[in-house]
Design a protein that fits this description.
Elements (H helix, E strand, L loop, with lengths): L1 H8 L14 E2 L13 E2 L10 E8 L5 E11 L2 E4 L1 H4 L6 E6 L13 E9 L15 E5 L11 E2 L11 E6 L18 E6 L9 E5 L13 E6 L2 E14 L2 E11 L4 H8 L3
Parallel strand pairs: 9-14
Antiparallel strand pairs: 1-13, 2-11, 3-4, 3-6, 4-5, 5-8, 6-7, 7-8, 10-11, 10-13, 12-15, 13-14, 14-15
Amino acid sequence: MKKLSLLILSSLMVACGGSDSNKPSNFTDDPGQNIIGGSEVRSGDSRFKSVVGIIMVDDRTGQALGVCTGTLIRKNVVLTAAHCVLASKGKVNFILYFGTDLLNLNQNNAYRVGVSAITHEKYSAELDKDAYDIALIKFDGDLPPGFAPVEILKDPRILQNGTPLLVAGFGRNDRYGNDPNNGTGTLRQVELSVSDAKYSDTEFRSTSIGKGICQGDSGGPAYVSINNQLYVAGVSNRVFGIGRINCILASVFLKVDQFHFWIEQNINRL
């Protein structure tokens, strides 16, 4: 595990409305300097009991290819981004992490091993609009205490311009350059809102200067809250920046409600 820790540290630079009764509610976020512009998730915060860290490992070399984030949607199935699963041309293995500090490899009962994965058949590595950047990972073993799956959003009327979002991920919190000490590996949260619910047929966008997702948050959840229950409404796909200033303009998410049939069908194929 010490060898893996060193490999991870050197490899963390991967890319990353209905009726009133069903109206999404606002969230309460602590002020901070992280995710970009959010705050660290406290251990035991039940709102994030479905967030999973993903370490991609090259099957040939054993080298960690980087970090992504995922959402637990079944007791042994994680929803994430296709570009995390297809991180290299070779076979990629996955280590699934349950906790808030991914680099703390001494934690007992915090890791599970991925056994199979499926990416969408229409996925485009160009990561332009409608990239179908969605994947599922199945892992071995039961869930660590305190973790549980979240429901996926199926109602396409919920996501509208202005809908509040709660976003989480293990990505960087430094938007400048390629500093390896960029904060990757710590679970953070940030409050956003939908700015363009029809950014594309299968995606929505959140535009908030200085706040949003960044590399390593890829595949992670964008939650909406309906009647005090969280639903995963988006999968973190990509970000916009300016030159060397990363993750500063906008965050793009896949619309989970457009893929709930695909998810249900492919869970049975894992």
